[in-house]
Amino acid sequence: MGARRGQDYLQRLNAESRDVWIDGQRVQGSVTEHPAFTNVTESMAKLYDLQFNPNLRDMMTYEEEGERYGTSFMVPKTSADLEKRRQMHKIWADATCGMMGRSPDYLNSALMAMSQAGDYFAQNNPMFAENIRAYYRYVRQHDLSLTHTLINPQVNRALSVSQQSDPDVAAHVVDKNKDGVVIRGARLLATQGPITDEIMVFPSTLLKGTEEDNPYSFAFAIPNSTPGLRYLCRETFDYGKSHFDHPLGSRFEEMDAVVVFDDVLVPWNRVFLLEDAKLCNDLHQMTGATIHMTYQVLQKNIAKAEFVLGVAENIVDAIGIGQFQHVQEKVSEIMLAVETMKAFVRSSEADASLNRWGVMTPKWEPLNAARQIFPKLYPRLVEILQLLGASGLMAIPSETDMTSDVQADIHKYLVSRNRNAEDRLRLFRLAWDVSLSAFGSRQVLYERYFFGDPVRMAGAYYHSYNKAPMVERVQRFLHQDDPVQVEVASTQA
Ligand SMILES: Cc1cc2nc3c(=O)[nH]c(=O)nc-3n(C[C@H](O)[C@H](O)[C@H](O)COP(=O)(O)OP(=O)(O)OC[C@H]3O[C@@H](n4cnc5c(N)ncnc54)[C@H](O)[C@@H]3O)c2cc1C
Ligand SMILES: O=C(O)Cc1ccc(O)c(O)c1
């Protein structure tokens, strides 16, 4: 089949039942018809449709052996391939204002990278190499959407997963039989879980296990319709309001869900790593998956920061605050975030090379730096919107007020310098949805945490960064009579 249309995505969701719980009830019928999911599934469908837009088709898809597939499955072999992947990521990210981190290309990128690293999985079991390759081909062939879950429940972080008082809480292996592996316990968190086709239950990219954690160490993927697999959703932040009232939440509300495995049977052909904490620890890094995911993440970051910049400058224009220096400085901060992200991408591409699996791979160091910085930048961008919008962010009656008995008040008092009341309301409701609504607050939490705890990410960054040349350079400076000579020599080297 190859690249699919939105209609195909929706039909597949409609055809498969899944165990999704929200607000005390199991979703009956298709998730596409539940108010928490209708709008976001429509948005996902629109992303798939972009693959058939005549102006974008060459960018969004590629051809292999007579079939057209989504570009996020394309194994990049050249810099041009990488550029094509980058453009595809940006098109999807722009389509969602950067507000859907889990557009399908995020996890497709991880799977693409892993599929080329069969030997890594073979170290655990020769069969696992073919399993990951076959899974990649299957997901690509049907253009499936994936979610993933990597983190054990937050019961007691002072203890490792195997030391928890109830060893049955975190997802773990309880049986292995001729049909597969049986998993019991829970994981968090699966963004988009209820509205994707399959779930990858993979090791953390960051948290390292020991041999005792082997029963909790695995990589596998199963359909979301698998018996015993259950999603426990938070409340939805799509409140069923119009696009006017809730411009982002009514379109891009990605659900987050706890995942429960109630003795779920994972068939052997879907197991990629099993009970080997060491191989699990290094999986994402050694296969290049983290790099290709981060490459996607940066396009989302650019799209998101550009969108916030547009919102900020519209506010500046609407209420006439552009002449104030501190306002210029604040908007400039957003511009710097955009340019910083772009520069990291450019730098990663300039130094791209084939990795050990023959995949053209952007340079990791700039991408890693970018993923350390953005969780700090994004909350500030949102703060800037609050500081610029001020009370205007609360002077936002709803769409229905515009046609109610108080419509005269609204059309008189809620105009801005160069906008009528309706246009001002549209703008400020958007700024509210980025910076203050439940949807907007979740975006901030998402950026802070989705790639892992920033504190431990910083620790890993500290340890992995090659600081030795700088330390030695200072040592030389301290012990030379004529440090200028040393500098010239080190520059030439
Ligand atoms: C909106 C959102 C979407 C997400 N989507 C997904 C998803 O799709 N798939 C997925 O797998 N995960 C997802 N996550 C989970 C994400 O990976 C985790 O939030 C992240 O890894 C941090 O883990 P935690 O939330 O369990 O925090 P914890 O590890 O419990 O940390 C809580 C606090 O304790 C501190 N702390 C805990 N342990 C230590 C330690 N050893 N040393 C120092 N400080 C420590 C942390 O710094 C932090 O301040 C999502 C998270 C969010 C917020
Ligand atoms: O690996 C971890 O520890 C955290 C992590 C990484 C990538 C993700 O997409 C994610 O949701 C969570």
Write out key terms for the chains shown.
six-stranded mixed β-sheet, binds 2-(3,4-dihydroxyphenyl)acetic acid, 493 residues, binds flavin-adenine dinucleotide, HpaB_Deino-type, globular, 49% helix, Butyryl-CoA Dehydrogenase, subunit A, domain 3, oxidoreductase activity, acting on the CH-CH group of donors, flavin adenine dinucleotide binding, Butyryl-CoA Dehydrogenase, subunit A, domain 2
Task: Summarize this structure briefly.
The protein has 493 residues and is an alpha+beta fold. It is built from 18 helices and 14 strands.
Description:
Substrate binds at residues 102-106, 148, 204-205. Residues 280-478 form the HpaB/PvcC/4-BUDH C-terminal domain. One of its GO terms (molecular function) is oxidoreductase activity, acting on the CH-CH group of donors. FAD binds at residues 148-150, 154-157, 191, 453-456. This protein has 493 residues and is of the alpha+beta class. It is 49% helix and 14% strand. It is built from 18 helices and 14 strands. It has helices at residues 6-15, 38-50, 57-60, 79-95, 105-115, 118-122, 126-142, 249-252, 277-287, 289-319, 325-350, 364-389, 407-413, 421-435, 438-449, 454-464, 468-479, 483-492; strands spanning 19-22, 25-26, 61-64, 67-70, 146-149, 172-176, 180-191, 198-201, 218-223, 229-233, 256-267, 271-274, 353-354, 360-361. The strands form 4 sheets. The chain has a 6-stranded mixed beta sheet, with no helix packed on it. Strands 5-8-9-12 form a 4-stranded mixed beta sheet. It has a two-stranded antiparallel sheet with strand order 3-4. Helix 17 packs antiparallel against helix 18 (483-492). It is globular and about 75 Å long. The structure holds flavin-adenine dinucleotide (FAD) and 2-(3,4-dihydroxyphenyl)acetic acid. 2-(3,4-dihydroxyphenyl)acetic acid (DHY) binds at residues 150, 204-207, 450-452.
